[in-house]
Amino acid sequence: ARAQRAAMGDDEDDEMHGAGGERVQCASHSVNLASPAHERNANDPWIVAFVDRTCRPETEVWIAASWEHDTPTDDSWLPQADSLVKSTIERISKVESSPQEVGTVVNPRKPPGLPSTFTGSASVDRDHYLQHLQNEQIALFGSIHSSTCKILNRLGLVDPNSAAVSNLPYRKYIFDLGDNVTSRSLPPGFVYGKVDPKDYPLVKSRTQIPRQDRTLVQLPSVAIYPTDTSSTTPQPIAWAFLGLDASLTTLHVEPAYRGLGLAKSLSLKLFSEDMNIYWQHNPTTGEGGDHVDERYGHADVATDNIASQRVCESLGGNWHFEVFWMRIVLA
């Protein structure tokens, strides 16, 4: 709903918390991305994109389109959709990008064989995620609805050398959070905190998905620390973040501390204390005429990541559709 209001020119909120990016939008009747709102029809197809090319090789583009909800059963909408997608990619190709050095993104001392973190897949290693790092003509699009993926593939916009990443489906879990989400107490011997920047190398070493410090520092985080330590600078034993798109991401529990319910505790802590900055405070009319805020969270989990799927389900998440991360050729 928020994306639709943005595409129709009615959203006055910030683009995304701390992202510093750019929004690209397009209505079906024109490739002019700045067409006035009064020329648009509320029933016209639309597409909206959030772009931050300084995030590379992390996700640089998120897109949403009207056909992703109740996708039409016939093909009459495809020519308009194709035109919208092509014009959006053309606009995105003009957004400046600067190559990143590998050392600023990953921890080169990552031990081999570590399990994937919350959203990732064990079948894709870090080298695959880094392949496009120095190629500015390729951008990583994230959390793309399967219906839009088909359009990108049909138009030949997907990097042919990115099959290991671009063909991997993720389940989109939606959490209806309402007003009743509360954090819960930790087992004895643990305390909540935030992820300290000094621990970013540890965080990056535990995931095969590349991360930049500049991205992590913008994101709400929660960490769990042991209290039975004599160290003046204790390291966290579990952590999680909310992504630029408000998704539950980079959730990790060290192997020695699994089975204690800490992943669920981290998630509830983030949902109850940090999601407020992402929600649009625009109450809708509910049953009985009362006004309610729609409060949702989401997570994208690889289809082979069974443990993380169980965490989402324990949080009341429902799997609604599949999304993909795709490397898109911009030129």
TrEMBL record:
SUPFAM superfamilies per record: Acyl-CoA N-acyltransferases (Nat)
Membrane-spanning parts: none
Domain of life: Eukaryota
Record-linked InterPro entries: Acyl-CoA_N-acyltransferase, Acyl_CoA_acyltransferase
UniProt xrefs under Gene3D superfamilies: 3.40.630.30
Official protein name in the record: N-acetyltransferase domain-containing protein
